Amino acid sequence: MLLQLAPAGILGGFLLIAVLSTLLANTAAYFVLGNEAELRQAIPPGVAMALVGLSAAVLSPARVIAIALVVDFVVVRLAYGLDRRGTAMITAMHYTLTVLAAIGIQQILAIYQTAPG
C-alpha cells in the first residue's frame, strides 16, 4: 500500500521531529558537557536524526536504528569536536532520550485514539 501524504504534512512532521531531536541532543550534551553545551551545536544532530526518521517509511526498523546510531555518532562528533568517548556518551544519551520520548508520544497517541467520541 502506497502512502499518500501532502507535502505540507511531510514538511511539518520533519520540522517537528527536527526541533524535538535538537532539544533532546542539547539535553544529552548538557548531561555530558555541563554548561559548555550550546543549543546551536545540537541543531546538526537534530536535523540529521529527522532526516534519518524519514527513511523509516521505506526501511526496516533494524536498518533505521543502525543508520541512526552511525549518523548520530558522526554528526555529534563533527558538531561538538569531541573524542570518541565523549561522542559515544552523547550519542548514547541522545538515543536513550529519543527512545523514551518516542515511547511516551506513542502512549499518548494510543490513549487519544481510544478516547470515546
Features:
117 residues, mainly alpha, 4 helices, globular
Summarize the structure.
It is built from four helices and no strands.
Topology summary:
Layout: H1 7-33, H2 39-54, H3 61-80, H4 84-113
Helix pairs in contact: 1-2, 1-4, 2-3, 3-4
Explained architecture:
- The chain has 117 residues and is mainly α.
- The protein contains four helices and no strands.
- The protein has helices at 7-33, 39-54, 61-80, 84-113.
- Helix 3 crosses helix 4 (84-113).
- The longest helix has 30 residues, at 84-113.
- It is globular and about 50 Å long.
- The two termini are 28 Å apart.
- The mean pLDDT is 90.
Shape: globular
Q: What string gives the helices and strands in order?
A: HHHH
Determine the N-to-C terminus distance: 28 Å
Q: Overall mean pLDDT score?
A: 90
Q: What is the share of helical residues? A: over 70%
Low-confidence stretches: none
The secondary structure category is mainly alpha
Number of helices: 4
Query: Rg from C-alpha positions?
Result: 15 Å
Sheet bearing the most strands, described? none
The percentage of residues in β strands lies in under 5%
Number of strands: 0
